Amino acid sequence: MKTRKNILPSFITVIIFSFVLYAVMIFLQPRLPHLTFMITSHDSWIEKAATEPLYRFLWFLGDMSEVVFHKSILGSLGLIVGSLIGYRLSKTRSKWQGFPIGDGMFPWIFISSLIGLMLSVYLFGANLSGGWMPTFVPFVSVPATVVLIYGGGWKNSIIGGVLGSLFTFPISAFILESFLIPLDLPPLIGNVLGMAFGAIIVLELLNASPWMEKKDIEEEKQDDIFEETDSREDYSSNKWFFRRLLADFTVANFFGNEIAGAGLFIGSMLSWALNPTLISYGTLNFPAVILSQLLAVSIGIFIYYDQWKESGFYPTFVPGVSVAPAVALFFNGSMESILVGAILGAVAAPPLANFIINKLPVHWHPLIGNTLSMGVCTTVITLILKYVSILG
Hints:
This protein is mainly alpha-helical and about 400 residues long. The protein is built from 16 helices and no strands.
């Protein structure tokens, strides 16, 4: 606790802010307008995206923010604008650049992820005729890992995008339909297992491919543009805590930048304010999602603060994009599910992810450890809450 005293004010501030924001959102939600531009409801969005090109494109945009359970066009646009601003500031070495976006590989990560998402949406989008499907999974998984392991450039970006779309969606969809729906478990489990197993298959294939060569990634990280943060980060600063909290909202996108996180947050909040039925799958549980995420990430950063200082990174983002919002949505935004999912997720998911990552083969990416932790912790915590509710 002594080492955390410097960030205690920011931690307490975030916890108080989270509950106040949740209360305000719950109060305002019934009084908000329901402005619609083409999309009248989330269900109509799915239905039209299955057959109509324009709505398929809108679904494609929404998929960019689905990893954080927002599924919002404005949230996705905010993420893109924020990430581009962060990238531009980093190129000019501005003091406002924040954490290095995309670990110095942002352009190729973004291009490869877009290729994977585009192929997933347009190859498998017709499956939306049967209801929601995880078309977003390549955008936050295999394509970026290929770039981070093998380097940038069009060849690697295209290979990562194509293989990512061909493997992750089918695996995720199969797990969803064959196991999660019959067993009544959160779809998130299928999403992250599809990412993990898809990444394992693709990275094994590429590792055995004679035409794929690992490059010196450190040389590709544009050292003339990006600076390492470990030597200049003031981990005892309350400002660092707030920045880290925002940045963790975009680590799953492989951006890890607070400006991108702010763009995502602002865009999603604006989307909710304009029509609360067109965000977070039309469940009206966006306030619960936001509360669960802010609690999970802030608690995780506070608990594992020493690990952050020692290594410069720790997977505290994991519960914020998986366990906490998945459990909150699964139990219809109940306060019990919000608190249990956030607290247990924050305590268990980061160290489990870190443990798995340390056991992975050298040619596998940490994504695999992160996503496996997401799947395991979400399953266990969901079953605990279901068991308790049965007893109750």
